[in-house]
Design goal:
Blueprint lengths: L3 E18 L4 E16 L2 E14 L13 H26 L7 H24 L7 H6 L17 E3 L2 E3 L6 E2 L1
Parallel strand pairs: 1-6
Antiparallel strand pairs: 1-2, 2-3, 4-5
Length: 174
């Protein structure tokens, strides 16, 4: 068994803004965290990936635009699976049908069922629009941050030429 993943080393808060969190379903404060990422195999660091920045919700700790598993997402995954299975069953019937003569009826039945499921889910996904506004629309409804003190260290922010930052910790208001 091979364990793999990414180590996120030396996390540092470098920015903040008001954002809309899709997990919390409310306007929240988001922090921009900079880390040094390293790819690892079997817990041994292998490849340095460099510095990365990511936004994190202060309340739940997840990415603000991360969407939880919804019915529409499940329908998309089942659609892809049913298309793959339908192609497998129909391909078995037309290309290998004579070699498995005793199972042709079962393959026909499963091919028809998978095709019907794919057509039904395709119709559902095409004709029923997603419920609710998108992340971009929700984010535009949130007012911009106008803090005068750094939320991380409490130092007054310095506003220089549209660049508002903290002199102590270096965090920026974005």
């Amino acid at each position: 068994m091979i364990w793999h993943g990414v180590y996120r080393l030396f996390p540092r808060k470098v920015g903040f803004r008001n954002d809309y969190c899709m997990t919390c379903r409310a306007p929240r404060r988001a922090e921009q965290v900079r880390t040094f990422d390293v790819l690892h195999l079997n817990l041994v660091p292998v490849l340095p990936l460099g510095f990365r920045r990511r936004w994190v919700c202060q309340e739940c700790g997840l990415r603000p635009r991360q969407v939880r598993l919804t019915l529409r997402l499940i329908a998309q995954m089942v659609l892809v699976a049913s298309l793959i299975e339908a192609a497998t069953f129909w391909g078995s019937i037309f290309f290998v049908g004579l070699a498995i003569a005793e199972d042709v009826d079962a393959f026909w039945f499963l091919g028809v069922i998978c095709s019907v499921v794919a057509v039904a889910l395709g119709g559902y996904l095409i004709f029923w629009p997603p419920a609710g506004p998108s992340y971009e629309e929700l984010r535009q409804s949130v007012p911009a941050a106008n803090d005068t003190k750094c939320p991380f260290c409490g130092t007054p922010l310095i506003d220089e030429f549209f660049d508002c930052h903290c002199p102590d910790c270096g965090a920026k208001r974005l």
